[in-house]
Every structure is written in C-alpha cells, then in structure tokens.
C-alpha cells in the first residue's frame, strides 16, 4: 500500500512539474532575435537617404539580371553617402557603389572566382 501511495505521489509530482514547465515555456517563448544586428539596425544617416536599400538593390540587379544579392551595406561615412551592394551570378561577384542621394552607380567592379584563387 505504501509503495502504491509513494508511486502515486511521485507520478502526480512529476505531472505537476511537467505541466508547470510547459506553462512557463508558453509564457516565455524563445527570445526574439536581437535588434543589435547590423542588418536590422539602420546605420547612421540611412533613414535620411533618398535612395533606400531596396531601391539600391534594384538598381544593381537591373545591371546584372539573374544575380543573387549577397550583401547590401549603407556607408554614411563617405561623401556622398553610398550603398555598397554585392551580387553574385554564376562564378562572378559584382560589387556596386551606388549614390544614396541620386541612385547613380559610382562604381561597378567584377571579380571571378578564378581571379580570387590566383590571388592566393
């Protein structure tokens, strides 16, 4: 009788702990991603840029149809302020510098994977 009573208490305690843990988990789900990431927090001056990120990316993609975006970074330290856009199509990396005020392409460099391997 004592063993049955002890087993019942242990089982009830375990069930209560599991239920309590589930309630605690439901009350505090996985933490949201940090907003301190460079991609999420706008760079100084970015909010004032006339050409926003999506427009700068489109300007670059229009020059290299079918390319994939690999990086987009605002540079507010230069005059004029610029967007640095990196695209990849096949084995070619395309680096653009786009004026954040006018949308003009200031620079467009290309580098193939073969050129990178030769530099090593």
Automatic annotation (TrEMBL):
First and last residue of the signal peptide: 1-26
Record's keyword annotation contains Signal: yes
Compositionally biased tracts (Low complexity): 26-49
Gene3D superfamilies linked: 3.10.450.40
Family matches, as InterPro entries: PepSY
Keywords: Signal
Stretches for region Disordered: 26-50, 89-120
Domain PepSY, first and last residues per copy: 51-108
Protein name stated in the entry: Putative membrane protein YkoI
Organism whose genome encodes this protein: Streptosporangium saharense
């Amino acid at each position: 009788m004592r063993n049955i009573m002890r087993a019942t208490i242990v089982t009830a305690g375990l069930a209560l702990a599991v239920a309590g843990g589930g309630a605690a988990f439901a009350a505090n789900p996985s933490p949201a991603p940090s907003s301190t990431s460079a991609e999420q927090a706008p760079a100084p001056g970015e909010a004032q840029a006339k050409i926003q990120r999506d427009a700068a990316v489109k300007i670059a993609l229009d020059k290299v149809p079918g390319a994939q975006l690999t990086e987009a970074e605002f540079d507010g330290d230069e005059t004029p302020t610029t967007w640095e856009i990196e695209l990849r199509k096949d084995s070619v990396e395309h680096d653009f510098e786009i004026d954040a005020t006018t949308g003009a392409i200031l620079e467009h460099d290309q580098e193939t994977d073969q050129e990178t391997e030769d530099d090593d």
